[in-house]
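Batch manifest line 425
LIGAND: NDP
JOB: complex structure
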Amino acid sequence: MTKVNWTGFSKKSPQERIEHLKKNALLTSNHLQDLQANKLLGLETANQMAENVLGTFSLPFATAPDFLINDKDYLVPMVTEEPSVVAAASFAAKIIRRSGGFQTHVHDRKMIGQVALYDVPNVKMAEQKILDSSALLLSQANEAHPSIVKRGGGARDIRVEAKEEFLIIYLTVDTQEAMGANMVNTMMEALVPTLEELSEGQALMAILSNYATESLVTSECSIDLRFLSRNKEEAQNLARKMELASRLAQVDVYRASTHNKGIFNGIDAVVMATGNDWRAIEAGCHAYASRDGQYRGLSNWIFDEEAQVLKGSLTLPMPIATRGGSIGLNPTVKIAHDLLGQPQARELAAVIVSLGLAQNFAALKALTSTGIQAGHMKLQAKSLALLAGASDSEVGQVVSQLLEAKHLNQETAQAILHKLRNIKN
Ligand code: NDP
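JOB STATUS: finished
ARTIFACT:
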């Protein structure tokens, strides 16, 4: 496949961007039509998805081009209300592509469910009895959800741990293309009678865990310093500062929290676009960030002086789905999967972690060079212009005057717009 030229994509209008996708055959014709017609989630479907529905709620649906992941090109769909997130991801993707792109590794893809028992009279004996009955428990779990077994998945492993007053049984399940919350919950509940009998204790709860440590995915990149700056000394200085920034997020929780928020600017955007449960992903990843007892930055950047490259890596639990939940219901979600080339769950997880790494690269580069506000001011001015009521044809002028004004606020934006309209009239 010849490489698509994305130069000037950000300057196009939404209709022109859709034309560009059409010209390069990046969407199927029915999805192109849906996108062109801005076909959104219908009220009838929305009313089935949640309770007390009053309407639907829209957010910008965008795309970040130029992602090269395991030698394959991706156009990553993103849903975000935050200015600069898509621009930053696209900028980073372009730089990382020049250095060979992202390489990923999906360690495994299984979910974990748990049953917590209490009032167990003899914990040691119960533990042994449960482990001795592993085969029975696995078959009971599979009988509770036979369709996943037919699809090649199912319950795989049982582990038991005593923690304080609890005896906790962990079940590992291959959920194939689904995130698996409902199927794992069904399996866990099915195990309760046998577990209570074996342990002579009581079950407190039976539920999936979002701490998906059996669904880890790593994305790595190695950036040639030439692409950080044309000036060698400046590039080396920046690479060193980016390594320091990554170390700062390892030792200071105040920084770690913001460092990881930047990663989730990208991750949440694609998790939402692909119809996945972003609360589940956030919960699992933040728990993973605290795995050694201290909350730390999730990514790592190392300046390899000898090779003159900046190496980045990000490992996250990423139990993402391509089936189930609301994925088949929302027309925009279907377009998102099409834009990505209908990947399987493992491939989608690798794309998402790569996007997180790209977003982090862009944030750290900006923070350690120009500062984050330089790029944000223009976008903030644009938001203020829109809030003041500027039309498409007025936004440009209001923004440029706002950037020169002493106070960048809504009052100034309104005054500029007022003046502009008076002059016109
Ligand atoms: P579903 O309940 O929609 O189940 C997925 C279903 O998709 C499967 O049961 C399977 O049904 C079908 N399917 C079709 N093709 C495949 C395939 N190739 N691989 C696997 N399954 C396939 O979704 P999940 O069980 O994944 O649960 C996710 C939902 O649960 C999300 O909406 C989430 O928000 C919510 N949730 C999350 C919780 C949490 O995170 N803690 C807790 C509770 C709910 P079949 O085989 O019968 O065709």
